[in-house]
Amino acid sequence: xxxxxxxxxxxxxxxxxxxxxxxxxxxxxxxxxxxxxxxxxxxxxxxxxxxxxxxxxxxxxxxxxxxxxxxxxxxxxxxxxxxxxxxxxxxxxxxxxxxxxxxxxxxxxxxxxxxxxxxxxxxxxxxxxxxxxxxxxxxxxxxxxxxxxxxxxxxxxxxxxxxxxxxxxxxxxxxxxxxxxxxxxxxxxxxxxxxxxxxxxxxxxxxxxxxxxxxxxxxxxxxxxxxxxxxxxxxxxxxxxxxxxxxxxxxxxxxxxxxxxxxxxxxxxxxxxxxxxxxx
Length: 280
Prior knowledge:
- By secondary structure, the chain is α/β, with parallel strands linked by helices.
- The chain contains 7 helices and 8 strands.
- A 6-stranded mixed sheet has the order 5-4-6-3-7-8.
- α1 crosses α2, α3 (131-137) crosses α4 (139-147) and α5 packs across α6.
- The longest helix is centred in the middle third of the chain and has 18 residues, at 159-176.
């Protein structure tokens, strides 16, 4: 077959007499770089805005209650200080306005800006109460709260409200870029992960978080990426006892349950307290 070699984009490509390239790959005589795509030239080149957020769950309170504004005990704050070594240098730091969140930030040596968007959900009349008492007085309300993320029988915030608040906060941070550390609570962290993954709110019950757990979200200008971070500490006997108690009343209140507490299973984070979340 007769043809000619024609230079095109600094490469030599075989063309037959009709100007049509053959089906086999073109032959390159040298390694000159190809012409960049037009959308990468001049003012049309896309701008990469990288946002990386470290979300840290505040230290646990001293006793098992629905989240209110309880302080963190000194031994929990000592464990929080070790987390500072895992963080990047020079991030912007935000913290929920609760005492536990601000104490956790201070224990880590961080100067945090209070941000109401990172606050735990408002538990209304349940805040600060023992969950066993709530289950005894309002079993139907507790079961509805566990099964429906849009329900707020305690006259506080539903998980839907919390999810909306956190999705707005993350969307604003994505437009700013940079490194961010946020000291918050388990409820907002669950909402943030679900928003990043585009997962339904009903999946919040399947995300297990412990006090001082840390996770990471990144945004490259186009999409969110969740990186399951290492965090938390080996469970003390105190936290194991808290988990067993909280697991028992949640299992008893769950819809379709026989009313008997379930035995505590083998879990990855035995110190998890189901009371540090906004919706289970």
